Amino acid sequence: MKTLLTLMGVVLLTSGVAHAKKNCTDQPKSKWMSIEKFKKQKEVEGYKIRKFKQPGTCYEIYGTDKNGKDVEIYFNPVDGRIVKSK
Q1: 71, burial (CB in 10 Å: exposed 0-12, middle 13-18, buried 19+)
Q2: Of 20, 41, 62, 83, which sits with the fewest C-beta atoms within 10 Å of its C-beta?
Q3: Is residue 81 part of a domain?
Q4: 53: Cβ contacts below 8 Å, ≥ 6 apart
Q5: What does the alpha-carbon distance between residue 20 and residue 31 come to, in Å, rounded to a whole number?
Q6: pLDDT tens per residue across span 29-65
Q7: For the domain that residue 55 is a member of, what is the CATH number?
Q8: Spatial contact of 66 and 45, defined as CB atoms under 8 Å apart
Q9: What is the rounded distance in angstroms from the CA atom of residue 73 to the CA atom of residue 39?
Q10: What string of DSSP letters covers 41-71?
């Protein structure tokens, strides 16, 4: 019984982490670059954006990089740095 309760606790703890929003910055939105400026910067860098999202405190794009490779990337909205890519 103790093993079952421990397993249930682990499942509950890890499921909460899986559904947490990405945290790309702790800066207020007033410090974020505008969406238009961000998209233009990424296009100059060679990205082709098919879909743009703003989950949590990130800017996220789905598209292709300068080599034509499919990308899904989370960026820091303040400076445009990559936080996570898939």
Answers
A1: middle
A2: 20
A3: yes
A4: 59, 60, 61, 62
A5: 23
A6: 999 999 999 999 999 999 999 999 999 999 999 999 9
A7: 3.10.450
A8: yes
A9: 13
A10: HHHHTT-EEEEEE--TT-EEEEEE-TTS-EE
In a domain, 46, yes or no: yes
Under 8 Å between Cβ of 21 and 55:
yes
Residue 11 covered by a domain: no
SS3 75: strand
Burial class (CB within 10 angstroms; exposed 0-12, middle 13-18, buried 19+) of 74: buried
pTM exceeds 0.85, yes or no: no
Per DSSP, the three-state class of 82 is: strand
Paired strand residues for 74: 60, 84
Q: How many CB atoms lie within 10 A of CB 8?
A: 10
Query: What are 64-75's pLDDT values in tens digits?
Result: 999 999 999 999
Domain count, the chain: 1
